Task: structure prediction
Amino acid sequence: MQELRDLARQLLADETVDVVVGWEDSPRGARPIFAATPDDAGKLIFDTRCLHDLATYLNPRRKQVTDLGKLAIVVKGCDAKAVAGLLREAQLERDRVVLIGVRCGGVCEDSMAPEPVALTPETVAPRCFGCDNREPRLVDHLVGEAQPEPPGPLLSLDERVAALDALTPEQLWEYWTAQFDKCVRCYACRQVCPLCVCERCVADKSRPQWIETASHPRGNFSWNVTRALHLAGRCVGCGECERFCPSGIPLATINRKLQLVVEERYGYRVADDPELKAPIGDFRLDDQQEFIK
Amino acid sequence: MSEALYLTREALQELVAGLLAAGTAVIGPAHAGGPRIPGLEERERPTAKGIYGSLEYREVGDAAELVLGPGMPRLSLKQFFLPQSEDLFAWKQRGAEVAIRETPTTFNPRVVIGAKPCDAAALEVVDAVMNWEYRDELWNGRRAATTIFALACAVEDQHCFCPSVGAAPDTIRGADGLLTPVDGGFLVETVTDKGRAFVEAHRARFAAAPDGAAGQARAFRDAATAKVGENTRIDAARVQDWIENHFEDPFWATLGVRCNGCGACTMVCPTCHCFDIVDEEEGVGCGTRRRCWDTCQAGKFTLHASGHNPRADQIARYRQRINHKFAIYPVKFGDVLCTGCGRCVRTCQMGQNIGEILVAIDEHAQR
Result:
């Protein structure tokens, strides 16, 4: 922690950056802080409640953050994958941001806990299971000590996917109808997504109205399916969409399923390497294309 | 309030069965339905949103489904008066002829049992705007058709702050009657003619309050008042005054920067009532005009056709949310547009905390 605070103070003092985006403790658990002074830098924390994907603040949609000047941002391995996604898609210039990587031993599911949460199968975030990036590579500084591997969760994302894969199409339809029925169309899933970068989302276009605004089943399916497909092969699996959903829709299950499909079909596995080409922006002669008829 | 009557759990069961048999819908806090998928149940794990669990307000088919105790439904009661989306009318055009099918504005009777007092109070707060320059027929129709029994609240957690905004864990605002839990059932007090008529119509289900019940109810309510008294306390009038005079204060810039602009806070809010009206075509020359929840936290909310946006960033949008609730609405309608339920605080995963913000404003106001 001290290492992180000292580094942040240094970056602010020598005017390398104007603001360090990290986490602080609050009456509502851990939350993002935009540290602009040495005092603020002293508030920085990193513990198991720091599950926010701060890379979302690098998203060009966030004018109020771009206006702050040059940023340093604290990233876990999963967040670094999101930064790589933004670089890969030319949404961010590498020299605009200083990346402070933290060695991560997994996070819990509850950012709002009053104290750091010990990781157990009950508390660990499912996305941390099998994490291949606990020491982010795409960084300018790496802080913290090496962390032990987190415990496996009660129910991993792959197990969630498997439970649904076992259903008949009718049962699946019933399940997702009930889930999407809860959607209030706040678009929290989109707003928090580090990779939802469209300046004007298709859901906000009204001439023509591609996606109906009303939260009837047709509108809710249009929105949720479009969101999912637009993130296929781009989603880094940070799980923020699911965490922010005020209605509790299991969006990470959808994203994981699509990750698995993309991996199987295109051999693509999301990583914090901006040079790695994503299937959505790449064409290879040996791409599977039997579905084109 | 009327003299309190007693409703046992068994009598409540009979009351609800009778209402349902007579075609009256019964709405209350209950666990969400939906299919259970083998192997997926473990997903429901306690988190900060835990006080919601799978609790929601919904129509029940049996009194046993009602969860009449601690716990707060994820969404407020407003969805039953201002649905997430509702039809206003449908049209069909053939040549120069346009046929309009109006949406009925009268509704079947409904009874809400176990409304959180803050959620019931919110309806009365919003009544003012729904009957301001235009009397909203759909809102008023649903209000008229609904009898609401609130359930005195034991206070959920540290984010409840109803007394700061003129409510209380046992407020009767917006309700037709109030239930207070006592041994074996509830003490029932009626507040409005509608509430009294309801009890009169089902008089056989209610008994005289047993000895000691009144004292028990008082103790329950006093304990709740004391508990919530330890939470956020502000002077709403002082906060209003500061906001009105500090539109350009640098304080606002410190709030909006963290905000996602997702509007989840407005969706879960019992008093946020802004809506968008859309025409959804459903074929050639036909379609439905619908009213849907909207949010001041979205850029599109104030985007002009010219491309200009008077609230250009999240800082301006977040200021608007606070401003509307704690200054604009009180000036116009004499009520704070907030009943202190704390849902926005519990919902915001970025840690935006309205209690903390109000305290900060109140401190600014006292400098």
